Automatic annotation (TrEMBL):
<dbReference type="InterPro" id="IPR011006">
    <property type="entry name" value="CheY-like_superfamily"/>
</dbReference>
<dbReference type="GO" id="GO:0000155">
    <property type="term" value="F:phosphorelay sensor kinase activity"/>
</dbReference>
<feature type="domain" description="Histidine kinase">
    <location>
        <begin position="1"/>
        <end position="221"/>
    </location>
</feature>
<dbReference type="InterPro" id="IPR003661">
    <property type="entry name" value="HisK_dim/P_dom"/>
</dbReference>
<dbReference type="Pfam" id="PF00072">
    <property type="entry name" value="Response_reg"/>
</dbReference>
<dbReference type="InterPro" id="IPR003594">
    <property type="entry name" value="HATPase_dom"/>
</dbReference>
<feature type="modified residue" description="4-aspartylphosphate">
    <location>
        <position position="295"/>
    </location>
</feature>
<feature type="domain" description="Response regulatory">
    <location>
        <begin position="244"/>
        <end position="360"/>
    </location>
</feature>
<dbReference type="InterPro" id="IPR001789">
    <property type="entry name" value="Sig_transdc_resp-reg_receiver"/>
</dbReference>
<dbReference type="InterPro" id="IPR036890">
    <property type="entry name" value="HATPase_C_sf"/>
</dbReference>
<dbReference type="InterPro" id="IPR036097">
    <property type="entry name" value="HisK_dim/P_sf"/>
</dbReference>
<protein>
    <recommendedName>
        <fullName>histidine kinase</fullName>
        <ecNumber>2.7.13.3</ecNumber>
    </recommendedName>
</protein>
<dbReference type="InterPro" id="IPR005467">
    <property type="entry name" value="His_kinase_dom"/>
</dbReference>
<keyword id="KW-0418">Kinase</keyword>
<keyword id="KW-0597">Phosphoprotein</keyword>
<dbReference type="InterPro" id="IPR004358">
    <property type="entry name" value="Sig_transdc_His_kin-like_C"/>
</dbReference>
<dbReference type="Pfam" id="PF02518">
    <property type="entry name" value="HATPase_c"/>
</dbReference>
Length: 361
């Protein structure tokens, strides 16, 4: 959370500087480097959050066969010419619920790990299958309940993993590779994403023969047929004339960036450092506010709590929650907050302003 606040401030103020320079300026390339490395740092924080299962996921119904088929070209490029990639699918594989982008990351990390275990080349097999667990399966401190699962196996014929290291392979920064050849975050990221998706991961390995990573994801069973979504009306990219945003953020650098970004896009911004200050501002009956943009975790009253109080006075006001924590950690407290959306930190100038504009559309 603290890292994401710092990265929001760094990348956000860099966005503001880039707006004042064109590509011909001497400083432009340096600013771009700062921005790109801030994004790389954000990705690294995302990997750590993945292990702790606190990253933000965009969950949807997925057919793993389609996900893997779409990824095949990239996986073949990752393994190179000396390694053959073989895919085999179960024709009755059940669908699952997960984040497509994150599950693609899982497969890329596992395939790269398998490739690195075979420096002289070889074959990597990816197998999907329908799996029915008939009774409780307890393994590696995990408890798999009976039910229907989609299974994915990634099999290599590489060097294998010693038994005394098998239980450590999912720990952050643990690696069997030489110094400089890996961060030790690849498999810990895989573990975190799989667990946050509600799945399980197991590894079997024999030194000199290879390894098999098995993923189990609960099958998604639809309880009702969803109504087709109505087409969204066209959104106006510019804010309505005189739109007012109440910005509530306890981190001064983040608040400064967000306020400047919104003002640059034509919004009137009222700033508050705490929830209590925000509620005091709203006591003015003459003040018109269109959108609340608020951090979730703050000293004193948290974001969802003060917003619920505010909506009693001003029903219909739109809300944008921002946080460095995962959206899942907010879900329970956001249940009673209508017309609200979630924007994860770190966010860019464009992501912030477009989210607010969409709330007003």
């Amino acid at each position: 959370h603290d890292f994401n606040n710092l990265l929001t401030a760094i990348s956000g103020h860099c966005d503001l500087l880039l707006l004042r320079h064109d590509q011909g300026d001497a400083d432009y390339a340096d600013l771009l480097q700062i921005n790109q490395n801030a994004n790389r740092a954000a990705a690294l924080v995302g990997q750590l959050l993945a292990f702790s299962r606190k990253q933000t996921l965009s969950v949807e119904k997925l057919d793993l066969r389609d996900t893997l088929s779409d990824l095949t070209h990239l996986l073949n490029r990752l393994v190179g010419e000396r390694v053959n990639l073989k895919l085999s699918h179960d024709p009755v594989l059940p669908p699952i619920r997960g984040d497509r982008r994150q599950l693609e990351q899982v497969m890329m990390n596992l395939v790269v790990n398998a490739r690195d275990a075979m420096p002289d080349g070889g074959e990597i097999e990816i197998e999907t299958s329908r799996c029915v667990v008939h009774e409780v399966l307890v393994r590696d401190r995990a408890r798999v309940e009976p039910g229907l699962y989609a299974s994915v196996k990634v099999i290599d014929r590489g060097s294998g993993i010693p038994q005394d290291k098998l239980q450590k392979v999912f720990e952050p920064f643990f690696t069997t590779k030489r110094t400089g050849e890996g961060t030790g975050l690849g498999l810990s990221t895989v573990y975190g994403i799989v667990k946050q998706t509600g799945g399980f991961i197991f590894v079997d390995s024999v030194v000199g023969e290879g390894s098999c990573f098995t993923l189990l994801f609960p099958a998604h069973e639809e309880t009702s047929v969803a109504e087709p979504a109505a087409p969204e009306p066209a959104r106006d990219s510019a804010p309505r004339q005189g739109s007012v945003v109440l910005l509530v953020e306890d981190e001064a650098p983040v608040r400064a960036f967000a306020a400047r970004a919104l003002r640059l896009r034509g919004f009137t911004v009222i700033e508050a450092e705490t929830a209590e200050q925000a509620l005091e501002v709203l006591q003015d009956p003459e003040l018109k506010v269109d959108v609340f943009v608020t951090d979730v975790v703050m000293p004193g009253m948290d974001g969802p709590s003060w917003v619920r109080h505010a909506l009693e006075m001003r029903p219909g006001t739109r809300v944008v929650f921002v946080s460095g924590y995962a959206e899942e950690s907010l879900d329970k407290s956001r249940v009673a907050v209508p017309n609200s959306v979630f924007l994860p930190k770190p966010f860019s100038l464009t992501e912030l302003t477009e989210t607010v504009q969409q709330q007003l559309a």
